[in-house]
Design a protein that fits this description.
Blueprint (H helix, E strand, L loop, with lengths): L1 H8 L28 E10 L4 E9 L2 E6 L9 E4 L4 E4 L1 E6 L4 E2 L2 E2 L4 H10 L2 E8 L6 H11 L6 E7 L5 H13 L4 E5 L10 H14 L2 E5 L3 H13 L6 H6 L2 H18 L3 E3 L5 H12 L4 E3 L3 H5 L10 H5 L12 H10 L15 H4 L19 H10 L6 H15 L17 E11 L18 E11 L2 E5 L2 E2 L21 H11 L12
Parallel strand pairs: 1-4, 1-5, 6-9, 9-10, 10-11, 11-12, 12-13, 13-14
Antiparallel strand pairs: 1-2, 2-3, 5-15, 7-8, 15-16, 16-17, 17-18
Helix pairs in contact: 4-5, 5-8, 8-9
The chain binds N-(aminocarbonyl)-beta-alanine and zinc ion (2 copies).
Length: 522
Protein backbone atom coordinates (compact mmCIF):
# COMPACT_ATOMS: atom_id res chain seq x y z
CA UNK A 1 0.00 0.00 0.00
CA UNK A 2 2.70 2.44 1.11
CA UNK A 3 4.65 2.07 -2.14
CA UNK A 4 1.51 2.43 -4.23
CA UNK A 5 1.00 5.80 -2.58
CA UNK A 6 4.58 6.88 -3.32
CA UNK A 7 4.35 5.73 -6.92
CA UNK A 8 1.14 7.66 -7.52
CA UNK A 9 2.51 10.77 -5.83
CA UNK A 10 5.47 10.83 -8.16
CA UNK A 11 3.46 10.18 -11.31
CA UNK A 12 4.29 11.94 -14.62
CA UNK A 13 7.78 13.19 -13.90
CA UNK A 14 10.41 10.43 -14.38
CA UNK A 15 14.05 11.34 -14.90
CA UNK A 16 16.27 10.33 -17.83
CA UNK A 17 19.17 8.18 -16.58
CA UNK A 18 22.66 9.53 -17.29
CA UNK A 19 25.67 7.22 -17.57
CA UNK A 20 28.82 7.57 -15.41
CA UNK A 21 32.17 8.77 -16.83
CA UNK A 22 34.81 6.06 -17.05
CA UNK A 23 37.89 6.42 -14.83
CA UNK A 24 40.84 4.04 -14.41
CA UNK A 25 40.46 0.37 -15.46
CA UNK A 26 36.75 0.68 -16.27
CA UNK A 27 35.77 1.93 -12.79
CA UNK A 28 33.53 5.03 -12.53
CA UNK A 29 35.49 8.30 -12.24
CA UNK A 30 33.18 9.42 -9.44
CA UNK A 31 31.74 6.67 -7.22
CA UNK A 32 28.74 8.80 -6.19
CA UNK A 33 27.79 9.15 -9.87
CA UNK A 34 24.45 7.73 -10.88
CA UNK A 35 23.46 7.11 -7.28
CA UNK A 36 19.76 7.01 -6.63
CA UNK A 37 17.95 5.06 -3.93
CA UNK A 38 14.94 4.70 -6.24
CA UNK A 39 15.11 2.70 -9.46
CA UNK A 40 12.45 1.56 -11.89
CA UNK A 41 13.28 -1.21 -14.36
CA UNK A 42 10.74 -0.87 -17.14
CA UNK A 43 9.42 -3.21 -19.79
CA UNK A 44 11.59 -6.29 -19.21
CA UNK A 45 10.76 -9.96 -18.79
CA UNK A 46 11.14 -10.72 -15.10
CA UNK A 47 12.44 -14.26 -14.61
CA UNK A 48 12.30 -16.13 -11.32
CA UNK A 49 13.15 -19.79 -10.69
CA UNK A 50 9.63 -21.01 -11.33
CA UNK A 51 7.93 -18.24 -13.36
CA UNK A 52 8.46 -15.47 -15.86
CA UNK A 53 6.29 -12.46 -16.74
CA UNK A 54 6.42 -9.10 -18.49
CA UNK A 55 6.62 -6.65 -15.58
CA UNK A 56 8.30 -3.55 -14.21
CA UNK A 57 10.38 -3.73 -11.04
CA UNK A 58 10.46 -0.87 -8.55
CA UNK A 59 13.37 -0.63 -6.09
CA UNK A 60 13.77 1.68 -3.15
CA UNK A 61 16.39 1.82 -0.37
CA UNK A 62 17.93 -1.51 -1.31
CA UNK A 63 14.72 -3.50 -1.50
CA UNK A 64 12.37 -4.58 -4.26
CA UNK A 65 9.03 -2.97 -3.47
CA UNK A 66 6.89 -3.85 -6.49
CA UNK A 67 6.88 -6.27 -9.42
CA UNK A 68 3.95 -5.65 -11.81
CA UNK A 69 3.15 -4.14 -15.20
CA UNK A 70 3.01 -0.39 -15.85
CA UNK A 71 4.46 1.08 -12.68
CA UNK A 72 4.48 4.90 -12.90
CA UNK A 73 7.05 6.98 -11.01
CA UNK A 74 8.28 10.56 -10.51
CA UNK A 75 11.43 12.33 -11.60
CA UNK A 76 13.48 11.41 -8.55
CA UNK A 77 13.47 7.82 -9.79
CA UNK A 78 16.18 6.45 -12.07
CA UNK A 79 14.50 4.61 -14.93
CA UNK A 80 16.19 1.73 -16.77
CA UNK A 81 14.63 0.51 -19.99
CA UNK A 82 14.71 -3.31 -20.13
CA UNK A 83 12.54 -3.79 -23.21
CA UNK A 84 13.52 -7.04 -24.95
CA UNK A 85 15.78 -8.01 -22.03
CA UNK A 86 15.62 -10.39 -19.07
CA UNK A 87 15.45 -9.04 -15.53
CA UNK A 88 16.71 -11.72 -13.15
CA UNK A 89 17.99 -12.19 -9.60
CA UNK A 90 21.70 -11.44 -9.30
CA UNK A 91 23.87 -14.55 -9.31
CA UNK A 92 24.90 -16.16 -6.04
CA UNK A 93 28.21 -17.99 -6.19
CA UNK A 94 28.26 -20.73 -3.54
CA UNK A 95 31.99 -21.41 -3.77
CA UNK A 96 34.86 -18.88 -3.74
CA UNK A 97 38.27 -18.35 -2.15
CA UNK A 98 39.15 -14.66 -1.84
CA UNK A 99 42.40 -13.67 -0.07
CA UNK A 100 42.95 -17.32 0.88
CA UNK A 101 46.39 -18.41 2.08
CA UNK A 102 47.04 -21.65 0.23
CA UNK A 103 50.02 -23.67 -1.01
CA UNK A 104 52.58 -21.14 0.21
CA UNK A 105 50.92 -18.07 -1.28
CA UNK A 106 47.66 -16.11 -1.19
CA UNK A 107 44.96 -15.90 -3.87
CA UNK A 108 45.47 -12.76 -5.92
CA UNK A 109 41.84 -11.60 -5.70
CA UNK A 110 40.87 -10.16 -2.36
CA UNK A 111 37.40 -9.22 -1.17
CA UNK A 112 37.46 -6.01 -3.21
CA UNK A 113 38.87 -7.16 -6.55
CA UNK A 114 37.09 -10.52 -6.46
CA UNK A 115 33.75 -8.92 -5.68
CA UNK A 116 34.20 -6.13 -8.23
CA UNK A 117 34.84 -8.84 -10.82
CA UNK A 118 31.74 -10.70 -9.62
CA UNK A 119 29.54 -7.63 -10.00
CA UNK A 120 30.84 -6.94 -13.51
CA UNK A 121 29.74 -10.48 -14.36
CA UNK A 122 26.29 -10.31 -12.76
CA UNK A 123 26.99 -12.04 -9.45
CA UNK A 124 25.73 -10.06 -6.46
CA UNK A 125 26.52 -12.40 -3.57
CA UNK A 126 29.05 -15.15 -2.89
CA UNK A 127 29.84 -17.56 -0.09
CA UNK A 128 33.53 -17.78 0.74
CA UNK A 129 35.36 -20.46 2.71
CA UNK A 130 36.87 -19.42 6.04
CA UNK A 131 40.03 -21.45 6.62
CA UNK A 132 40.83 -21.98 10.32
CA UNK A 133 44.13 -20.61 11.63
CA UNK A 134 46.16 -23.55 12.98
CA UNK A 135 42.89 -25.44 13.24
CA UNK A 136 41.20 -22.67 15.27
CA UNK A 137 37.75 -21.73 13.97
CA UNK A 138 37.54 -18.61 16.14
CA UNK A 139 40.87 -17.27 14.84
CA UNK A 140 39.93 -18.16 11.28
CA UNK A 141 36.65 -16.29 11.62
CA UNK A 142 38.39 -13.17 12.95
CA UNK A 143 40.94 -13.30 10.11
CA UNK A 144 38.15 -13.41 7.51
CA UNK A 145 36.22 -10.61 9.21
CA UNK A 146 39.36 -8.49 8.65
CA UNK A 147 39.88 -9.68 5.07
CA UNK A 148 36.27 -8.88 4.18
CA UNK A 149 36.34 -5.27 5.37
CA UNK A 150 37.02 -4.12 1.79
CA UNK A 151 33.86 -5.83 0.48
CA UNK A 152 31.75 -4.09 -2.12
CA UNK A 153 28.95 -6.67 -2.30
CA UNK A 154 27.10 -9.03 0.02
CA UNK A 155 28.79 -12.23 1.10
CA UNK A 156 28.48 -15.11 3.54
CA UNK A 157 30.89 -17.66 4.99
CA UNK A 158 31.25 -21.44 4.97
CA UNK A 159 33.94 -22.78 7.28
CA UNK A 160 36.50 -25.55 6.78
CA UNK A 161 37.16 -28.10 9.54
CA UNK A 162 40.79 -29.20 9.49
CA UNK A 163 41.23 -30.92 12.87
CA UNK A 164 39.03 -32.37 15.61
CA UNK A 165 38.89 -31.77 19.36
CA UNK A 166 36.44 -30.43 21.97
CA UNK A 167 37.32 -26.81 21.15
CA UNK A 168 36.55 -27.30 17.44
CA UNK A 169 33.29 -29.02 18.35
CA UNK A 170 32.29 -26.15 20.68
CA UNK A 171 33.39 -23.52 18.15
CA UNK A 172 31.22 -25.11 15.45
CA UNK A 173 28.28 -24.47 17.77
CA UNK A 174 29.32 -20.84 18.27
CA UNK A 175 29.75 -20.34 14.51
CA UNK A 176 26.22 -21.62 13.87
CA UNK A 177 24.42 -20.05 16.81
CA UNK A 178 26.22 -16.69 16.97
CA UNK A 179 28.12 -16.03 13.74
CA UNK A 180 25.70 -16.87 10.96
CA UNK A 181 27.57 -19.87 9.48
CA UNK A 182 25.42 -22.87 8.50
CA UNK A 183 27.85 -25.05 6.50
CA UNK A 184 31.20 -26.75 7.11
CA UNK A 185 33.61 -28.14 4.52
CA UNK A 186 35.69 -31.27 5.04
CA UNK A 187 38.67 -31.77 2.73
CA UNK A 188 39.19 -35.45 1.86
CA UNK A 189 42.32 -34.42 -0.11
CA UNK A 190 45.40 -32.17 0.34
CA UNK A 191 47.27 -34.72 2.48
CA UNK A 192 49.56 -33.03 4.99
CA UNK A 193 47.64 -29.74 5.03
CA UNK A 194 43.83 -29.53 4.96
CA UNK A 195 43.00 -33.26 4.67
CA UNK A 196 40.99 -35.03 7.37
CA UNK A 197 40.42 -38.77 7.88
CA UNK A 198 37.19 -40.80 8.02
CA UNK A 199 37.07 -40.68 11.82
CA UNK A 200 37.02 -36.88 11.71
CA UNK A 201 34.54 -36.93 8.86
CA UNK A 202 32.16 -38.96 11.00
CA UNK A 203 32.58 -36.68 14.03
CA UNK A 204 32.07 -33.65 11.81
CA UNK A 205 28.96 -35.09 10.13
CA UNK A 206 27.43 -35.92 13.52
CA UNK A 207 28.12 -32.41 14.79
CA UNK A 208 26.73 -30.81 11.62
CA UNK A 209 23.55 -32.84 11.99
CA UNK A 210 23.11 -31.84 15.64
CA UNK A 211 23.44 -28.16 14.67
CA UNK A 212 21.30 -28.27 11.52
CA UNK A 213 24.40 -27.24 9.53
CA UNK A 214 25.19 -28.59 6.08
CA UNK A 215 28.23 -30.87 5.73
CA UNK A 216 30.24 -30.18 2.55
CA UNK A 217 33.01 -32.32 1.12
CA UNK A 218 35.95 -31.87 -1.23
CA UNK A 219 35.76 -35.44 -2.47
CA UNK A 220 39.07 -36.93 -3.61
CA UNK A 221 40.93 -39.81 -1.98
CA UNK A 222 43.92 -37.85 -0.62
CA UNK A 223 46.03 -40.94 0.21
CA UNK A 224 45.59 -42.30 -3.30
CA UNK A 225 46.35 -38.86 -4.80
CA UNK A 226 49.60 -38.89 -2.81
CA UNK A 227 50.40 -42.30 -4.27
CA UNK A 228 49.47 -41.06 -7.77
CA UNK A 229 51.84 -38.12 -7.38
CA UNK A 230 54.70 -40.45 -6.37
CA UNK A 231 53.96 -42.54 -9.46
CA UNK A 232 54.26 -39.47 -11.72
CA UNK A 233 57.52 -38.38 -10.11
CA UNK A 234 58.95 -41.91 -10.59
CA UNK A 235 57.99 -41.67 -14.27
CA UNK A 236 59.73 -38.28 -14.54
CA UNK A 237 56.43 -36.47 -15.25
CA UNK A 238 56.88 -33.18 -13.40
CA UNK A 239 54.81 -30.75 -15.54
CA UNK A 240 51.15 -29.64 -15.16
CA UNK A 241 49.88 -32.74 -17.02
CA UNK A 242 51.16 -34.75 -14.03
CA UNK A 243 48.50 -32.99 -11.94
CA UNK A 244 45.64 -34.50 -13.93
CA UNK A 245 47.35 -37.89 -14.31
CA UNK A 246 48.01 -38.22 -10.56
CA UNK A 247 44.39 -37.72 -9.48
CA UNK A 248 42.11 -39.49 -12.01
CA UNK A 249 38.27 -39.47 -11.86
CA UNK A 250 38.16 -42.84 -10.07
CA UNK A 251 39.63 -41.16 -6.96
CA UNK A 252 36.93 -38.50 -7.05
CA UNK A 253 34.25 -41.14 -7.53
CA UNK A 254 35.57 -43.23 -4.62
CA UNK A 255 35.65 -40.30 -2.18
CA UNK A 256 32.24 -39.06 -3.30
CA UNK A 257 30.75 -42.50 -2.69
CA UNK A 258 32.47 -42.79 0.71
CA UNK A 259 31.21 -39.38 1.86
CA UNK A 260 27.71 -40.24 0.63
CA UNK A 261 27.70 -43.56 2.48
CA UNK A 262 28.94 -41.98 5.71
CA UNK A 263 26.35 -39.19 5.45
CA UNK A 264 23.70 -41.85 4.94
CA UNK A 265 24.98 -43.76 7.99
CA UNK A 266 24.72 -40.55 10.08
CA UNK A 267 21.50 -39.52 8.29
CA UNK A 268 22.56 -35.97 7.57
CA UNK A 269 22.32 -33.97 4.30
CA UNK A 270 25.49 -33.72 2.23
CA UNK A 271 26.76 -31.11 -0.24
CA UNK A 272 29.49 -32.24 -2.66
CA UNK A 273 31.49 -29.22 -3.85
CA UNK A 274 33.16 -28.92 -7.27
CA UNK A 275 31.82 -32.11 -8.88
CA UNK A 276 34.27 -32.46 -11.77
CA UNK A 277 33.73 -35.94 -13.15
CA UNK A 278 31.07 -38.25 -14.49
CA UNK A 279 32.23 -40.73 -11.83
CA UNK A 280 31.32 -38.40 -8.94
CA UNK A 281 28.11 -37.26 -10.62
CA UNK A 282 26.92 -40.85 -11.03
CA UNK A 283 27.43 -41.53 -7.32
CA UNK A 284 25.29 -38.49 -6.53
CA UNK A 285 22.64 -39.58 -9.02
CA UNK A 286 22.48 -43.02 -7.40
CA UNK A 287 22.16 -41.58 -3.90
CA UNK A 288 19.46 -39.10 -4.89
CA UNK A 289 17.53 -41.83 -6.67
CA UNK A 290 17.50 -43.80 -3.44
CA UNK A 291 16.04 -40.78 -1.64
CA UNK A 292 19.20 -39.52 0.05
CA UNK A 293 19.61 -35.75 0.46
CA UNK A 294 22.75 -35.07 -1.52
CA UNK A 295 23.42 -31.79 -3.29
CA UNK A 296 25.92 -31.73 -6.18
CA UNK A 297 27.69 -28.52 -7.19
CA UNK A 298 29.55 -28.51 -10.49
CA UNK A 299 31.72 -25.46 -11.14
CA UNK A 300 31.88 -23.51 -14.37
CA UNK A 301 35.41 -24.71 -15.24
CA UNK A 302 34.24 -28.33 -15.02
CA UNK A 303 31.24 -27.64 -17.23
CA UNK A 304 33.03 -25.67 -19.94
CA UNK A 305 36.69 -26.68 -20.14
CA UNK A 306 38.57 -29.89 -20.82
CA UNK A 307 42.02 -31.00 -19.71
CA UNK A 308 43.79 -30.59 -23.08
CA UNK A 309 45.50 -27.31 -22.07
CA UNK A 310 47.37 -29.12 -19.29
CA UNK A 311 49.50 -30.62 -22.09
CA UNK A 312 50.36 -27.17 -23.52
CA UNK A 313 54.15 -26.95 -24.03
CA UNK A 314 54.17 -23.47 -22.47
CA UNK A 315 54.28 -23.91 -18.67
CA UNK A 316 52.06 -20.94 -17.68
CA UNK A 317 49.52 -21.69 -20.42
CA UNK A 318 49.17 -25.15 -18.87
CA UNK A 319 49.60 -24.29 -15.17
CA UNK A 320 46.80 -21.74 -15.18
CA UNK A 321 44.37 -24.68 -15.62
CA UNK A 322 45.62 -26.56 -12.54
CA UNK A 323 42.86 -26.98 -9.96
CA UNK A 324 41.57 -29.83 -7.81
CA UNK A 325 39.81 -32.05 -8.57
CA UNK A 326 41.36 -31.59 -12.02
CA UNK A 327 39.54 -30.37 -15.09
CA UNK A 328 38.69 -33.65 -16.83
CA UNK A 329 39.03 -34.90 -20.37
CA UNK A 330 36.35 -34.00 -22.87
CA UNK A 331 33.02 -35.76 -22.22
CA UNK A 332 32.85 -35.17 -18.46
CA UNK A 333 31.78 -31.50 -18.87
CA UNK A 334 28.98 -32.48 -21.24
CA UNK A 335 27.77 -35.15 -18.78
CA UNK A 336 27.81 -32.59 -15.96
CA UNK A 337 25.80 -30.12 -18.06
CA UNK A 338 23.26 -32.82 -18.77
CA UNK A 339 23.05 -33.70 -15.07
CA UNK A 340 22.39 -30.04 -14.27
CA UNK A 341 19.69 -29.82 -16.88
CA UNK A 342 17.89 -32.90 -15.51
CA UNK A 343 18.16 -31.94 -11.84
CA UNK A 344 20.73 -34.57 -10.84
CA UNK A 345 23.03 -31.65 -9.94
CA UNK A 346 21.45 -28.57 -8.42
CA UNK A 347 23.52 -25.39 -8.71
CA UNK A 348 26.66 -23.97 -10.30
CA UNK A 349 29.60 -22.45 -8.43
CA UNK A 350 33.00 -21.24 -9.56
CA UNK A 351 35.61 -22.24 -6.95
CA UNK A 352 37.15 -18.86 -7.91
CA UNK A 353 40.67 -19.26 -6.51
CA UNK A 354 43.04 -17.18 -8.62
CA UNK A 355 46.81 -17.13 -8.78
CA UNK A 356 48.80 -15.07 -11.26
CA UNK A 357 51.61 -16.34 -13.49
CA UNK A 358 54.30 -15.61 -10.92
CA UNK A 359 52.42 -17.60 -8.31
CA UNK A 360 51.71 -20.49 -10.70
CA UNK A 361 55.47 -20.52 -11.46
CA UNK A 362 56.10 -21.77 -7.89
CA UNK A 363 55.55 -25.17 -9.47
CA UNK A 364 57.71 -24.68 -12.56
CA UNK A 365 59.79 -27.80 -11.73
CA UNK A 366 57.15 -29.79 -9.87
CA UNK A 367 53.39 -29.88 -10.57
CA UNK A 368 52.75 -30.65 -6.87
CA UNK A 369 53.81 -27.09 -6.02
CA UNK A 370 51.58 -25.29 -8.57
CA UNK A 371 48.97 -23.40 -6.49
CA UNK A 372 45.63 -25.08 -7.25
CA UNK A 373 42.83 -22.87 -8.53
CA UNK A 374 41.26 -21.08 -11.49
CA UNK A 375 39.13 -17.96 -12.07
CA UNK A 376 35.39 -17.89 -12.75
CA UNK A 377 33.57 -15.43 -10.50
CA UNK A 378 33.22 -12.87 -13.33
CA UNK A 379 32.58 -15.41 -16.08
CA UNK A 380 30.10 -17.90 -14.56
CA UNK A 381 26.84 -16.11 -15.39
CA UNK A 382 27.77 -15.45 -19.02
CA UNK A 383 29.23 -18.89 -19.68
CA UNK A 384 26.30 -20.78 -18.17
CA UNK A 385 23.83 -18.67 -20.15
CA UNK A 386 25.70 -19.22 -23.38
CA UNK A 387 26.44 -22.92 -22.89
CA UNK A 388 23.09 -23.96 -21.48
CA UNK A 389 20.33 -21.45 -22.30
CA UNK A 390 21.56 -20.35 -25.73
CA UNK A 391 22.13 -23.99 -26.65
CA UNK A 392 18.55 -24.82 -25.66
CA UNK A 393 19.50 -27.26 -22.87
CA UNK A 394 17.71 -25.35 -20.13
CA UNK A 395 15.06 -22.64 -19.81
CA UNK A 396 15.53 -19.11 -18.48
CA UNK A 397 13.80 -20.12 -15.25
CA UNK A 398 16.18 -23.08 -14.87
CA UNK A 399 19.06 -20.64 -15.36
CA UNK A 400 17.84 -18.51 -12.45
CA UNK A 401 17.39 -21.62 -10.33
CA UNK A 402 20.91 -23.02 -10.86
CA UNK A 403 22.78 -19.69 -10.70
CA UNK A 404 20.91 -18.05 -7.82
CA UNK A 405 17.70 -19.37 -6.26
CA UNK A 406 18.81 -22.88 -5.39
CA UNK A 407 21.87 -21.51 -3.62
CA UNK A 408 19.67 -19.16 -1.58
CA UNK A 409 17.36 -22.06 -0.65
CA UNK A 410 20.15 -24.46 0.30
CA UNK A 411 21.86 -21.87 2.49
CA UNK A 412 18.55 -20.69 3.96
CA UNK A 413 18.45 -17.08 2.79
CA UNK A 414 15.57 -17.36 0.30
CA UNK A 415 13.60 -15.20 -0.58
CA UNK A 416 15.75 -12.36 0.82
CA UNK A 417 18.19 -13.47 -1.88
CA UNK A 418 17.62 -15.38 -5.11
CA UNK A 419 14.26 -13.84 -6.09
CA UNK A 420 12.66 -10.83 -7.73
CA UNK A 421 9.76 -10.48 -5.32
CA UNK A 422 8.41 -7.59 -3.24
CA UNK A 423 10.50 -7.55 -0.05
CA UNK A 424 13.57 -9.28 -1.54
CA UNK A 425 16.96 -7.55 -1.58
CA UNK A 426 17.39 -5.48 -4.74
CA UNK A 427 20.12 -7.68 -6.26
CA UNK A 428 19.16 -7.70 -9.93
CA UNK A 429 20.71 -8.20 -13.35
CA UNK A 430 19.51 -7.13 -16.78
CA UNK A 431 20.66 -9.51 -19.52
CA UNK A 432 20.38 -8.66 -23.18
CA UNK A 433 20.01 -11.95 -25.12
CA UNK A 434 20.82 -10.23 -28.42
CA UNK A 435 24.14 -8.82 -27.23
CA UNK A 436 27.40 -10.76 -26.97
CA UNK A 437 30.39 -11.08 -24.63
CA UNK A 438 34.08 -11.80 -25.05
CA UNK A 439 36.41 -12.84 -22.24
CA UNK A 440 40.00 -11.68 -21.88
CA UNK A 441 42.54 -11.01 -19.13
CA UNK A 442 43.00 -7.63 -20.82
CA UNK A 443 39.49 -6.55 -19.90
CA UNK A 444 38.48 -8.67 -16.89
CA UNK A 445 38.36 -7.23 -13.36
CA UNK A 446 40.27 -9.96 -11.54
CA UNK A 447 43.83 -9.04 -10.54
CA UNK A 448 45.15 -12.11 -12.31
CA UNK A 449 47.18 -11.64 -15.50
CA UNK A 450 45.61 -14.75 -17.04
CA UNK A 451 42.12 -16.10 -17.63
CA UNK A 452 41.29 -19.75 -18.28
CA UNK A 453 38.49 -18.62 -20.64
CA UNK A 454 40.74 -16.31 -22.68
CA UNK A 455 39.21 -15.52 -26.07
CA UNK A 456 35.83 -17.15 -25.42
CA UNK A 457 32.88 -15.40 -27.02
CA UNK A 458 29.20 -16.00 -26.59
CA UNK A 459 25.69 -14.64 -26.71
CA UNK A 460 23.82 -12.94 -23.87
CA UNK A 461 25.39 -9.96 -22.13
CA UNK A 462 24.73 -8.73 -18.61
CA UNK A 463 24.38 -5.02 -19.25
CA UNK A 464 23.34 -3.88 -15.78
CA UNK A 465 24.00 -5.18 -12.27
CA UNK A 466 22.14 -3.73 -9.32
CA UNK A 467 23.45 -4.77 -5.90
CA UNK A 468 21.79 -3.69 -2.67
CA UNK A 469 19.61 -1.31 -4.66
CA UNK A 470 22.52 0.50 -6.33
CA UNK A 471 23.52 0.38 -10.00
CA UNK A 472 27.06 -0.96 -9.76
CA UNK A 473 27.64 -2.07 -13.36
CA UNK A 474 26.28 -0.39 -16.47
CA UNK A 475 27.61 0.16 -19.97
CA UNK A 476 30.93 -1.44 -19.07
CA UNK A 477 31.53 0.87 -16.10
CA UNK A 478 31.92 -0.42 -12.54
CA UNK A 479 30.77 1.84 -9.74
CA UNK A 480 31.77 0.16 -6.47
CA UNK A 481 32.85 1.36 -3.04
CA UNK A 482 35.10 -0.69 -0.70
CA UNK A 483 33.33 -1.37 2.58
CA UNK A 484 29.83 -1.19 1.13
CA UNK A 485 29.21 -4.98 1.11
CA UNK A 486 27.27 -6.60 3.94
CA UNK A 487 27.90 -9.89 5.74
CA UNK A 488 24.82 -12.06 5.33
CA UNK A 489 24.11 -14.34 8.27
CA UNK A 490 22.73 -17.71 7.20
CA UNK A 491 20.43 -19.51 9.65
CA UNK A 492 20.72 -23.23 10.41
CA UNK A 493 18.13 -25.90 9.55
CA UNK A 494 17.47 -25.25 5.87
CA UNK A 495 14.75 -27.21 4.09
CA UNK A 496 17.23 -30.08 3.72
CA UNK A 497 16.78 -30.86 7.43
CA UNK A 498 13.00 -31.13 7.34
CA UNK A 499 11.95 -34.61 8.46
CA UNK A 500 15.43 -35.82 9.41
CA UNK A 501 14.28 -36.31 13.01
CA UNK A 502 11.28 -38.35 11.84
CA UNK A 503 13.53 -40.61 9.77
CA UNK A 504 15.71 -41.11 12.86
CA UNK A 505 12.69 -42.04 14.96
CA UNK A 506 11.56 -44.47 12.28
CA UNK A 507 15.00 -46.04 12.19
CA UNK A 508 15.18 -46.43 15.97
CA UNK A 509 11.73 -48.01 16.15
CA UNK A 510 12.61 -50.39 13.32
CA UNK A 511 15.52 -51.93 15.20
CA UNK A 512 13.54 -54.33 17.34
CA UNK A 513 16.37 -54.02 19.82
CA UNK A 514 17.64 -54.36 22.42
CA UNK A 515 16.13 -57.82 22.65
CA UNK A 516 15.10 -58.61 26.22
CA UNK A 517 16.69 -61.91 27.15
CA UNK A 518 16.28 -63.83 30.34
CA UNK A 519 19.54 -64.76 31.97
CA UNK A 520 20.18 -68.46 31.61
CA UNK A 521 21.91 -70.10 34.56
CA UNK A 522 25.12 -71.87 33.52
O1 LIG B 1 41.92 -26.11 -6.86
C1 LIG B 1 41.12 -25.70 -6.04
N1 LIG B 1 39.92 -26.21 -6.02
N2 LIG B 1 41.49 -24.74 -5.17
C2 LIG B 1 40.71 -24.22 -4.11
C3 LIG B 1 40.66 -25.11 -2.91
C4 LIG B 1 39.58 -26.14 -3.04
O2 LIG B 1 39.88 -27.32 -3.03
O3 LIG B 1 38.41 -25.79 -3.15
ZN1 LIG C 1 37.97 -28.16 -2.67
ZN1 LIG D 1 37.19 -24.45 -3.46
Amino acid sequence: MYYHFILLLLLFCSKAHSVCDVGINGYAADSSCGYSNKILIKGGTVVNAYSQELADVYVEDGLILAVKPNIMVGDDVTVLDATGKFVMPGGIDPHTHLAMEFMGTETIDDYFSGQAAALAGGTTMHIDFVIPVNGSLAEGFEAYVKKSKSSCMDYGFHMAITKWDDVVSKDMEIMVKEKGINSFKFFMAYKGSLMINDELLLEGFKKCKSLGALAMVHAENGDAVFEGQKRMVELGIMGPEGHALSRPPVLEGEATARAIHLARFVNTPLYVVHVMSRDAMEEIARARKSGQRVIGEPVVSGLILDDSSLWDPDFISAAKFVMSPPIRESGHGEALQQALSTGVLQLVGTDHCTFNSTQKALGIDDFRKIPNGVNGIEERMHLVWDAMVESGQISMTDYVRITSTECARIFNIYPKKGAILPGSDADIIILNPMSSFEISARSHHSRSDTNVYEGRKGKGKIEVTIAGGKIVWENGVLNVVPGSGKYIEMPSHSYLFTGIDKADEKYISSLKAPVKRSKVAT
